[in-house]
Fold:
Amino acid sequence: MAEKYSGSCYCGAVKIEASGAPIDMGYCHCNECRRYSTAPVSIFTLWKPENVKATKGADSLGKFKSSGMSDRRYCTKCGGHVMIDHPTLGLADIRIALSGLVFKPTVHLNYEEKVLPIKDGLPKFRNFPKEIGGSGERMTE
Structure:
């Protein structure tokens, strides 16, 4: 049986469950993620959309189309960030803490836009890997 991880928005009105393992985890340095998270860098955990479901409060899950690639999802009651749908990539990015999931980052995305350099030895892509429509160009720390 696949492992299951669950978490909720700040107020608990929306609960999300993810099953299996995430496709990838890492850091995003793009301006949009920084603006939305109000932080110099944002973390991501990418999942197949079919492995993610709202187990409570789906009717309280708001949607904001922030780009041609991303639909940001949030709780309409507390405003807490929940996830980002990337329909063109076939990915869901869960932005809430999932119980039992250990964050093991493997990559930095959009490092060209960084405002906080991070020297951790992980690959740093100028934008995205080629496999998901980026240049695939890597940057140095």
Remarks:
- Strands lie at 4-8, 15-19, 24-28, 42-47, 52-56, 61-65, 71-75, 81-86, 91-94, 107-109.
- The radius of gyration is 15 Å.
